[in-house]
Design brief:
Elements (H helix, E strand, L loop, with lengths): L9 H24 L4 E4 H12 L10 E5 L4 H10 L2 E6 L2 E6 L9 E5 L18 E3 L4 E3 L1 H11 L2 H12 L13 H12 L3
Parallel strand pairs: 2-5
Antiparallel strand pairs: 1-2, 3-4, 4-5, 6-7
Helix pairs in contact: 1-3, 2-5, 4-5
């Protein structure tokens, strides 16, 4: 169902990006203040890496994915709820809505370190310690991000991997860094970028 159709507005586009940025920073600050190890993952991690090379190639995303240890879930609930987020467990996913009226698509989604999301995946998620520190938050290292994207390998993961390929962050030189299964997936994208 189509919602309200507003006039064309770059201000609305910028506002949408600013809201994601604010949620990401608020969540990271709450986790840092509580001493909970984490790393920003997903589309925002891809955008942060891509922006280091070419800010015009950045693709925006609504949600914020955070990698952390499952053992830290109770502490994470306390920290994020104190920052105004509301915990929900929906369709097997732990997430935090931005307030009681927050939208699921805009939530903070938890990804658990060192676990396989699905039993048929070729590798577990990276460890929570595999990150690079920014002055305001921790971001998955590029090898960990590539691993998690190649492991999941859904449509959006392939799009994110193509973004990393397009700016030269990953190429055929990654073969030695990957398991044969993950290399086969990356080679498929390198051989046919479209």
């Amino acid at each position: 169902m189509l919602g309200t159709l507003h006039p064309f507005s770059f201000e609305r586009v910028v506002n949408a990006v600013d809201k994601v940025n604010e949620r990401l920073h608020r969540a990271a600050a709450a986790l840092d203040a509580a001493g909970i190890p984490y790393a920003i993952a997903g589309g925002n991690a891809v955008a942060l890496w891509v922006a280091r090379v070419d800010e015009t190639a950045v693709r925006n995303t609504r949600g914020v994915d955070v990698l952390l240890r499952r053992d830290d879930l109770d502490r994470t609930k306390a920290a994020l709820e104190a920052a105004g987020f509301v915990y929900r467990h929906l369709a097997g996913i732990d997430l935090f809505l931005d307030g009681a009226d927050g939208k699921q698509q805009e939530a903070i989604r938890l990804i658990y370190a060192s676990e396989q999301v699905r039993p048929d995946e070729p590798a577990p998620n990276p460890t929570v310690g595999d990150f690079e520190q920014d002055e305001r938050f921790k971001v998955l290292s590029l090898p960990a991000l590539v691993q998690i994207k190649l492991t999941a390998f859904r449509d959006k993961d392939r799009v994110h991997l193509r973004d990393l390929i397009d700016v030269g962050l990953i190429d055929a030189g990654w073969q030695a860094k990957l398991s044969p299964v993950l290399w086969k997936r990356l080679k498929q994208l390198l051989d046919d970028p479209h």
